[in-house]
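Researcher: Please predict.
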Amino acid sequence: MKNNYDFKVRWGDTDAAGIVFYPNFYKWMDEATHEYLSAIGYPSSKLFQEQQIGCPILEANCQFKQPLLFEDSVRVQSIVQEIQNKVFKISHVFLRGEKEIAKGYEVRAWTSFKEEPKAQPIPEEVRAKMLQPNQHVEV
């Protein structure tokens, strides 16, 4: 399933040169992942509150193609690219209009925090929703 997360670049996201400071792309990928989980019916806050499940990041990467500026409208398109037993890889593409600005990914573990944090198998119902090929949700 693909999910869109839209936002505007804020003044505090930029550096002295007036362009977005690169760590913000990682913040936005994190936000886009949480929006994705909500869109498939598993909001992070509810998962943690009801099941003590979280999805910590194991790996993150981002490639930058063009700068973003204050008040740019941005769309992050997110899709789960790969699912293993306990881990999933979610890809993010940053767009300003139709132009690709950056792309990246996160690798996350489906993790129980009931005692010591421990990766758990991703439930089949979650896997099925992540892998729905034609479903598209906009947030």
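Model: The mean pLDDT is 95.
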